[in-house]
Every structure is written in C-alpha cells, then in structure tokens.
Amino acid sequence: MDPLLALDAVSYRYPGRNTGLALDDVSFAVPPGGHVGIVGESGAGKSTVLRLLLGLAAPHTGSVSFDGAPLDLRDRAGMRRFRAAVQPVFQDPYSSLDPRQRVDRIVGEPLRSLAVASGAEASDRIEAALRDVGLDGDAGRRYPHEFSGGQRQRIAIARAVVSGPRVLIADEPVSALDLTTRVAVLELFERLAAEHGMTIVLVSHDLAVVARMCASTVVLRGGRVVESGTTGRVLAEPESAYTRALLDAVPRLPV
C-alpha cells in the first residue's frame, strides 16, 4: 500500500541557529487509515517533524509527500487543498481557542480560510461537527470560557474535522486533561477515525496513549529515527537501548 503521508531522507535546520540539524535523514511513512505514534524526549525533533507534516516548513534536504506527490509550499492552490485534508489538534485546549470568538466561528474558521464552504452549507457543517464530537446544539452560540477543558478539546477536534480531513495530526492532545477526561477524548479520536476513515499521526510522551491509539511507532532521538516498527514490538521488545531507557524513564498512566 502506498503511503498517504511520508518523510523521505529529511534534514532540517532552523534558520539563524548554530545548534546543528534539528532533523537528520529522517524517513518514515504513514499508510492510509493508519495510526502512527511519534515519541522521544524533549528536543528529539518531534515538533519539527510536525511542522513539516503540516506544511509549515520545507525540509532543507529530502522531501515530504502527501498522496504520492511532494509538497510544494509555493503552490498556493495545492497547499490549500493539502491543509483542508491534513488538520492539526494542539496540546492545550485553553490557549488554542480564541476567547473573543464564539464557538461556531472558531469551528468554522477552516471552512472560511480554506474556501471549503460558506453560507448555509458552512453552518450545517459546523453544527454537524459539533454534534459529531458530542456537544449539544447551543454550543456554537457560546464562548470557550463557558466550557470545561475536555469540552474545549472537543471544540478543537470539531474545528479539525469540519473540513473533512483525511489526516489528523495530534500534538499531545490529552496531556493537559485529567485522567477521566483523557479517556473520553481518546475514545472520541478512535470513533471519529473509524467512522470517517481518518489517518492519525500522534505525538505523545505518554506511551500508554501511544500503545492504545497507534499501530506503529517512530522513536526519535536528537533529530534521528533510532527505532520504528509495530507499536507492540517497539514497546514490548525494543531493539534500541534508547527506547528501553525511554520506556523505563517515562511515567505511564492507564488509559
């Protein structure tokens, strides 16, 4: 099966920094409908990988491809289609939502900015997205401060799915939530992925979350891939000493 999203021999250096490569010869592929976890300690390169996967930066060497074609950040129409198909869910449901805007406007922002839908069609899609994440009918008329942390993350997920994406890229999506709420949000991710056939790329320091959500795992250290494979194998029988140390060092909570 051809990958839906892939990094091929990617290297990246942040402009103006003399700290070496943020990523060095990184390659991995995400199959259609697959769930891939990316793990590693702080500074391993996870955030840089997400920037490249979201089309927010271009690699210095190597390529990032979507649906078999390299991303070209200069192709405005092509990138608009890409961003409608690949949407992020960020870590903090408190800071990722504009407190000055009503929820319906927040959720509908991708429809406007990506020219996906407008008018009555946009309103219908916003209402459907809010229902899809388990929020009631009047949620769109309220403001973020009127919701709990778990509900705010549901709003963020509704914003991500309203454009009908093929891929969700989730950066620590439950780390800011309490244990009971995180279970509910993970169940929501699983249901949405199953119902809509979405591909998921998940960054998490919590290996229990990765074990639950992801069929395969990529382990980063110092901007390089030190291990990758099925999640069951990587977590149960790691080949890299770094992966074994990561398993020993990172606290894991039940999910």
Automatic annotation (TrEMBL):
Q: By its UniProt entry, which Pfam families does this protein fall under?
A: ABC_tran (PF00005)
User: Is Secreted there in the keyword field?
Assistant: no
Q: InterPro entries given for it?
A: AAA+_ATPase, ABC_transp_ATP-bind, ABC_transporter-like_ATP-bd, ABC_transporter-like_CS, P-loop_NTPase
Q: Which residues form the ABC transporter domain?
A: 5-247
Keywords, A to Z? ATP-binding, Nucleotide-binding, Transport
A molecular function annotated in GO for this UniProt entry is: ATP binding
SMART domains per record: AAA
Instruction: Decide whether keyword Transport is in the record.
Output: yes
- Cross-referenced Gene3D superfamilies, in alphabetical order? P-loop containing nucleotide triphosphate hydrolases (3.40.50.300)
Q: Superkingdom of the source?
A: Bacteria
Note the coiled coil stretches, chain numbering: none
Concerning PANTHER family, the annotation shows: D,D-DIPEPTIDE TRANSPORT ATP-BINDING PROTEIN DDPF-RELATED (PTHR43776:SF7), TRANSPORT ATP-BINDING PROTEIN (PTHR43776)
State the family named in the UniProt similarity comment for this chain.
Belongs to the ABC transporter superfamily.
**Protein name as catalogued:** ATP-binding cassette domain-containing protein
Organism per entry: Curtobacterium citri
